[in-house]
Amino acid sequence: MSQPPWKLACADFTFPLLPHDRVLDLIAGMEFDGVDVGLFEGRSHLWPSNEYAQAERFGKELRKKLEDRGLRTADVFLQLDPDFVPYAINQPDPARRQHARDRFLQTLDYAAAAGSPHVTTLPGVYFDGEPRETSWARSQEELSWRVQQAAKRDLIFSVEAHVGSLAPSPQEAERLATGIEGLTLTLDYTHFTRLGMPDSSIEPLVKYASHFHVRGAREGRLQAPFKENVIDYARVMQVMREVNYRGYLGVEYVWIDWEHCNECDNVSETILFRDFIRGKQA
Q: How many domains does the chain divide into?
């Protein structure tokens, strides 16, 4: 039995210089199925501090904007500060942890209203001045709570292992995924490829993925053009078929002054990867 066509999403934060409505027009014009919505405080179109003033109302308004364009919400990705340390979920400061919890509950309300099946956050970091296992244990506690809260709303919850997090390698990402029942990964090979890690070391993570980010990368570059990409996405999709992956493939180019991520033509690169994925349909 062949796999259904891949569900393709595009991140709204790929095009930060356009007004948000025009971004949605562009994504619809490129004929994507869904939108990965970035709720990044201080650096995306939609900020949690604004959207959560009336989370359900604004979530419903976003859903209507997407549906009017033939789109769906594929994922809602929460980040509470441009720097991922101050409000990391495993902050030693109890007040900051509580703030992150409160915002997460609002994220669930917003995601449900926006019609998203999926919510992503970051997994936390190691903090100076305390044992690494203490930082890890606090992250586990917070992630377990988030899995439970998401399940109450029939939402899938995942974390993205990333450069600078407490899961900067595939081995630590797998430790995260296997440590908490119900936790899944928003898998992005590029964070590991940048460090020179081969696809074969990342591939075991595919079976834990509920969402997937696609873009070009090579050693030393978190984001690279299609022509410089070294990730074998054809192989990735083959493994996805083997493990019965049913999530979106979100093309996620970004345009920020970090990690050389403002050196690509995001429109062209997004289209190239869209067409590549379409060409690999079963």
A: 1
